[in-house]
Amino acid sequence: MKTTTALLQEPARHQGRYQISSAGDSEIHMPNCAPPVHFNENITTIPSTNNVAVNRRPNVPATNKNTYKKPPVYDGTPSWQDYLVQFKQLGKRNQWTQEDKAMELAVSLRGAAVSILSDLGLPDRENYNCLVSALAARFEPTNQSEIFRSKVKSRVREKGETLPELAQDVKRLVRFAYPTAGVELRDQLALDCFIDSLGDAEMQ
């Protein structure tokens, strides 16, 4: 059997020669020759292009599975904009590509939201921006601002509802009712609507 001989780097008391088969299928130690202290048997042996066996460490996965965070499901019930903000934060943490984001978003859809996939062609279904636009048009169309304005004007505190819960819902309604308004204007509108929702009896 044709072999290639390589001189091992080892302490002087263990100096010797070590044979590696040219086919890369076996390793033979010469008599009275111990492998060096730093020898690693877990190193993968693969043949090189010149038919000489080469030791190479296995590839280390680039993604750390311990840091991966799975996105929550979306069924069309919660606010789409709120969900999208959370989804984008997860995408940044998980270092998703545009293709990854399209896949993760698609498999996170449930209920009424998953029907969006059937309405889209295959290219748009795998395109993150197209998928986001389709979901926004379905669950938060721009023509709903008038509906939310009507809701926020008629909003009153329900029985057993706490003030923080009422304030949070009023802010949500105002955000949808006035989507183009600045933050300061929306906060002022939300405060006015919150006061109106309490009623005269509760204000006294």
TrEMBL record:
Please note every region of biased composition (Low complexity): 52-62
**Which stretches does the entry tag as region Disordered?**
52-73
Q: What is this protein called?
A: Uncharacterized protein
Which species expresses this protein natively? Mytilus coruscus
